[in-house]
Specification:
The structure is a homodimer. Chain A has about 475 residues and is α/β, with parallel strands linked by helices. Helix content of chain A is about 45%, strand content about 15%. Chain A has a seven-stranded mixed sheet, sandwiched between helices. A four-stranded antiparallel sheet of chain A has the order 11-12-15-14, covered by helices on one side. A two-stranded antiparallel ribbon of chain A has the order 1-2. In chain A, helix 13 runs parallel beside helix 15. Chains A and B meet through helix 1, helix 5, helix 7, helix 8 and helix 11 of A and helix 1, helix 5, helix 7, helix 8 and helix 11 of B.
Chain lengths: ~475, ~475
């Protein structure tokens, strides 16, 4: 064990006691001799930690009588008016693009409401009120409705041979909340984490907001470079790797089964949690994708997040996360209890009854066909331009590269002027570098809007591109 | 401006760039001369910051060529297995007490479901599906449904002359989420905040989880000691004061109007946000309580949190927060967008239609009477014991002091054995000190359960107390 590690351990221990107010203003700190004995470190290590804390004005020394807790000095806020407060908050870029109403909506990876089972889902709502007349007068448990967890766990066991059980599940208000809870439970400022490059932009924003040290893993049409991942895990000892291995957002790529298995082994070896976000696996076009990475997990290193609601009823905001390790789950339950004390029960019950109905399967089958048709229309229109993309076998998005000289970030303003929206690649890049990639979702606009909108968009880019070349 | 402040500013600036990965491994830092010029500080200040960062192993120096970003050293996690992760997470004590099912439920400050408008609220649900057939297939905006915000803002204007508008409102998934969002937006580890003593235990847990430096303000039957508050604001420059001034939880005390006005003046003077949590003001017994502190705010220093759902339909999990300062709201919207991207639309629409109905007013009037009767029964039974409490004029709780030698924390285990639950005072104490106070809620148990349960509880305490005296 190296000296820096021990030093940091002592430093953090003392600082935490002070911050939690266990050791209060002008309290005497343990003597260097005693703390060194308690923590089984060298006395010089404690001295070094005390010296740094003294330099940072957290403690002070009195000759011969030792070290004491400094009164907290908040002078750093002396000159702050309220507007300064916002410096604490990281932007959520995607939600800002979505605010703009457009006719050709290719930025939202949401299903067209006309493809959703609006009419008959209200039958299930009435059923819920008949079955549970007091559903609105009680809270759900923090972990989520027992009946729903049973139904979901049964589904995972049948569908993927996951051998999970209802205790392993936590119901959340959408998958975004699931990621947010994980970030709060397991990542603090300066902690290193791995993200795919590109990645889901809201996840990037969340981890940046915490001040995590983000290291990126490239994702390719064939999956990952596992040597790169092993190197990064070895070198940086990341706390977690947030990944989206099935019809990846935004690229649409899928990580093959052999890599899934090896990734779990690496995660176990380097004690790195894998956060598998699975939003799209039911939206496949020709054949079913590989089973989740979670199915290879034997030691609780994978937290699996599944959201069904995107293609059933996004308005319900119900997702589920799953993990096999008790202490991981315990942390998540606690964070959930602090965040909102449990997702609304009504939403869970409505979801339960629709989810366990035979109508769901029929709906999903129809939806796959409708989305495949939209994808094909978008690809056909795009083939008129000289752009690059890998045709995905599922999901809601095309990840398209424009000719090199074009920045898609700059293009967005012009596109919105023409009532077209998309997600520029830079937003999906954890490193936020300028990019000639963009994400086009084919799930929200209908066939006609896709045809017209893509033609209009190609015109815009080609006009703009020729200007750019001239300039 | 003192040197420590400038030093910290430079130190934080450099560290943030490194943590956000804007300055990467082995990148050269700006020269001391340049950074000093950019930040308008003395070169020695920059040198001091670089030296500390070097000591902390975040940067390294090369002779004559300057300072460079160190590769991140994560060796501190070398020995950590997953269970260590839970050390990041603070317990939520209250939710653990609530997990235990008991016959005499005095720990949950929730309304008995039998007093809630279960039967006719389902009419509103059907109405919602008729009015908005696609309510389940769309997301709410991050800020919350426009129609609901209009209705609520109209209500606040009529009820309290608040002169608010729909843009000032943010809809949240329960008031617990509102507090959680505020904590995330405005408080970081080591920041000083004020909490009442005692206070709402989940709020205490949330601020502790962030690592805030918590300073307490005593609350008395007559309100606060404003000199104490001024002294604390002056000395500690707290970022915010979380308070619950109307039928305060757990004590039931109400802060009088004159103090409300002065508190806002203090908050403005010392730039301290006031977080006014108002859950109980509609549950008054004889006369209406003073108008919210928010009504005295002229400069956006108050964030007002209102939850109606507790006495309408807790299962909906709808609350609202309000603030008059644009940059404060902007921070909150961003944090909300990261946390869950907006509360479920269905729940907002159901709430809207019930909230704007005439049935609501009738329901609340009946509820006040029912709860006052339960309170009086509980007080009558309690009068058999020689315990102390101040009879509240509203809210859901009695705050009772047992004879001095009894710790209510120890008592809880014995009470639960007898199927009685309550909240021990220690849980409501931000300083977590042993206490002979306890919170008894009269809102959940019915009349008969209150009578029987309190008698049983007095027997238990008196038996236990005599043992304690003997020991």
């Amino acid at each position: 064990m190296n000296g820096d590690f021990l030093f940091k351990q002592v430093y953090d221990y003392v600082l935490n006691r002070i911050e939690l107010n266990e050791w209060k203003e002008d309290d005497k700190l343990p003597s260097i001799r005693n703390l060194a004995a308690d923590m089984k470190v060298h006395r010089l290590t404690v001295l070094k930690a005390y010296q740094l804390l003294k330099q940072e004005n957290r403690i002070y020394a009195k000759d011969k009588s030792g070290y004491f807790v400094q009164s907290s000095d908040n002078s750093k806020y002396d000159n702050q008016d309220i507007p300064m407060i916002s410096a604490y908050v990281q932007k959520n870029h995607l939600s800002e693009i979505h605010k703009v109403p457009v006719s050709y909506q290719f930025s939202q990876a949401l299903i067209d409401p006309n493809l959703l089972p609006n009419r008959y889902i209200s039958d299930y709502v009435k059923k819920v009120f008949d079955l549970y007349p007091k559903v609105l007068s009680t809270y759900s448990t923090v972990q989520g409705d027992e009946e729903l967890r049973q139904s979901l766990s049964g589904y995972f066991n049948r569908q993927y041979k996951m051998f999970t059980n209802p205790d392993h599940l936590l119901i959340t208000t959408g998958s975004q909340q699931a990621i947010h809870l994980i970030a709060q439970a397991f990542v603090k400022a300066r902690d290193t984490i791995l993200l795919e490059r590109p990645s889901y932009s809201s996840a990037i924003d969340m981890f940046r907001a915490i001040g995590a040290n983000i290291i990126t893993v490239d994702i390719h049409p064939y999956g990952y470079d596992l040597e790169q991942i092993e190197h990064l895990m070895k070198k940086h000892k990341p706390r977690l790797f947030y990944l989206n291995p099935t019809f990846h957002n935004p690229t649409g790529y899928t990580v093959p089964p052999a890599q899934r298995k090896q990734l779990v082994q690496l995660a176990e070896q380097y004690r790195c949690l894998l956060i598998e976000d699975d939003a799209y696996s039911d939206i496949y076009f020709d054949e079913e994708p590989p089973t989740p990475i979670y199915t290879y997990d034997t030691s609780g290193m994978v937290i699996y997040i599944k959201s069904f609601c995107k293609y059933i009823s996004p308005g319900l905001r119900i997702a589920v996360m799953m993990n096999g390790h008790e202490s991981v789950r315990k942390s998540l339950f606690t964070v959930k209890s602090l965040a909102d004390n449990g997702s609304p029960l009504l939403n869970q019950k409505i979801f339960l009854h629709y989810f366990s109905s035979s109508r769901l399967q029929q709906h999903v089958e129809k939806l796959r066909i409708a989305l495949q048709i939209r994808k094909e229309i978008m690809e056909k229109e795009l083939s008129a331009a000289n752009w690059q993309w890998t045709s995905p076998n599922g999901g809601l998005n095309l990840w398209v590269q424009l000719p090199d000289h074009l920045s898609t970030e700059d293009l967005l303003t012009k596109a919105i002027d023409q009532s077209i929206s998309f997600v520029p690649g830079q937003i999906c890049d954890p490193l936020k570098q300028p990019s000639s990639w963009l994400r086009l979702s084919y799930s929200f606009a209908n066939e006609e809007q896709i045809s017209k909108g893509i033609r209009k968009f190609i015109n815009l880019v080609q006009r703009d591109g020729s200007h750019a070349s001239e300039a």
